[in-house]
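Quick illustration, no need to memorize.
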Amino acid sequence: MAETICLIDDEPAILNTLSSILEDEGYQVLVAKSGLEALKIVRSEAPDLVILDIWMPEMDGLETLKRLRAQFPSILVVMMSGHGSIETAVKATKLGAYDYLEKPLDLEKVTILVRNALHQRKLEEENLNLRIQVERRFELVGSSPAMERLREMIAMAAPATSRVLISGANGTGKELVARAIHLQSPRHNRSFVEINCASIPET
């Protein structure tokens, strides 16, 4: 299925040119001539990428970007402008834009940027799916009072920055508890490193 791109610009010539280029690259293209129209399209069609002009009447691109990110936090947005400045580009990036294009557009640069942005989105989705699979694999099961108490202790330990000692006999699930603490901690985006202490030679 073709990936979908939503183009937002009040200039018909820009919309026509970009639409033709991106459709030739195999993408499905949606167009909007205002920020309000764009919000409706994104809400109903959920495009993979949005390319958004900054200078538009009624609601400008930065305000549109702000509303898009508020309603769809993971949406991928590339900004473009013919009256750009470093300050505007920095502001757009702080609001969550993936990148920034200057007009007149270099069409080869546009296609490369679109390809890279969609590739990154795909990698992020794959990462998220893998993380969900890992979390399910190491999920603690059971609803006994002891298990509920264990979950409470994990929730208390996870936000802490101090070391946590997990003790118990072999096969009681110490690694599952360690992973549960890691997944609920502020460090959950970092690697979980498992070390077999028994295999470390004494010096």
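The chain has two domains: 4-132, 138-199.
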